[in-house]
Amino acid sequence: MAVALILSGMLGGGLWLIVTAQPVGRRRPDLASRLRRLTAQGRLQEEAGRRGSQAAVFKSPALERLLRPLLEDAGRVLGRVVARTGLGGRDLERKLALGWPGMTTAQFYGQKLASGLVLLTAFPLMNVLGVHPFGAWPVWMWLVGFGLGFAAPDWMLEERLERRRTAVVMELPTVLDLLAIAASAGMSPEQALLEVSRQVGGVLGDGLRDAVREAGLGAATHAEALRRLAEREGVGELASVADAWQAALEQGLPLGQAMLTLGETVRDKKRARLLEEGGKSTVRMLFPVAVFIFPVFLVVLLYPAGVELLGLGG
After folding, report:
1. Is 132 in the same domain as 175?
2. Radius of gyration, alpha carbons of the chain
3. pLDDT top residue among 241 and 2
């Protein structure tokens, strides 16, 4: 009897797996999506979608299962509302693809709403717990907290994009030197770009490999792919590389010398950016010095003198 039950259970489980694996009731891809896969641009978009589909919103698997669908649904509704006002759109999708890979617009809007609600509920919760050193937190502070929390993901995204642009600018001089060496060795511009893209890592290396792949699939020429890369990353120096590339192909100018000249220009801009970041760091240090260090220094310095002048020590 037990053997019969085990065999029938195995048979039923196997039949259930076979039935659930069949594409019954699933949405079949339409003809437009099938034709899009046959084009170079469609294959590039599908590959980019596969690369960015594995991101997780929460580190905890339990929170990922419980809260992620709720955030996505709320963000999808908020995204539709924002799209009707004309504030969102393709620009946000482009920024997310660059600065926050794997984050969809629905997840981003859900994150904005969640962070805003967290800061909104923090102030009434502190009122209930009695944590109000300056009196009860007013309602306008609740709204300010919601606004700050709602805008925090935007600030994080801009910071990620700025770090990405800085990384591209820092990696560009090395790429230009390698292009000049490859061109001086007798390689054609296409071969030089292909070899350099294979040797370089980092953000710029990934972008160059995408540009080479795009040109290899016939979606654009090498110069157009470099120009698209410059527009996508928001780095003007890459546009200069695309112009020098186009001039080398059309006018027969030496690519190596053009890359060396651009390399010196980019290095000058890199030095200027480093000096600018150093100046910003000096300004950032003023706040902790003025708020935390300078008052303590005054107390330590003036308290003994005050005690002596007032005669409190005797």
Report:
1. no
2. 29
3. 241
